[in-house]
C-alpha cells in the first residue's frame, strides 16, 4: 500500500463503475418508460388469437403492470369455441 492510496483510498475498477452506471440508466429508463405500444400489442394479439379461436375482440383484455422492477403482462381471453 502506497502512502497516497492510504489517504485517497483504492479506486473502483472501471468495470464496476460501468456496471453501476448501467444499472442507474436502466432503472431510470424503466421508471420513465411508457406503455405507448400497448394498443398495438393488443391489436396484434387479437389477430394471432383469432387465427385459432373464434373470439370477439372485446373479450380480450391486455394489461401491463409494474411491480417494482418487474413488468407483468396479463392477457385475459374469454374463449367460446375453438376454430
Automatic annotation (TrEMBL):
Name this protein carries in UniProt: Cell division topological specificity factor
Species: Candidatus Kinetoplastidibacterium kentomonadis
GO function term, MF aspect, one: identical protein binding
GO terms classed as biological process: cell division; regulation of division septum assembly
Role: Prevents the cell division inhibition by proteins MinC and MinD at internal division sites while permitting inhibition at polar sites. This ensures cell division at the proper site by restricting the formation of a division septum at the midpoint of the long axis of the cell.
Span of the signal peptide: none
Alphabetical UniProt keywords: Cell cycle, Cell division
Similarity field: Belongs to the MinE family.
Amino acid at each position: 500500500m502506497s502512502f497516497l492510496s492510504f489517504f485517497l483510498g483504492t479506486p473502483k475498477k472501471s468495470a464496476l463503475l460501468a456496471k453501476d452506471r448501467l444499472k442507474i440508466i436502466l432503472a431510470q429508463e424503466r421508471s420513465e418508460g411508457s406503455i405507448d405500444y400497448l394498443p398495438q400489442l393488443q391489436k396484434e394479439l387479437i389477430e394471432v388469437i383469432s387465427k385459432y379461436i373464434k373470439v370477439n375482440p372485446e373479450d380480450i383484455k391486455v394489461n401491463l403492470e409494474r411491480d417494482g422492477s418487474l413488468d407483468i403482462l396479463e392477457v385475459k381471453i374469454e374463449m367460446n369455441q375453438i376454430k
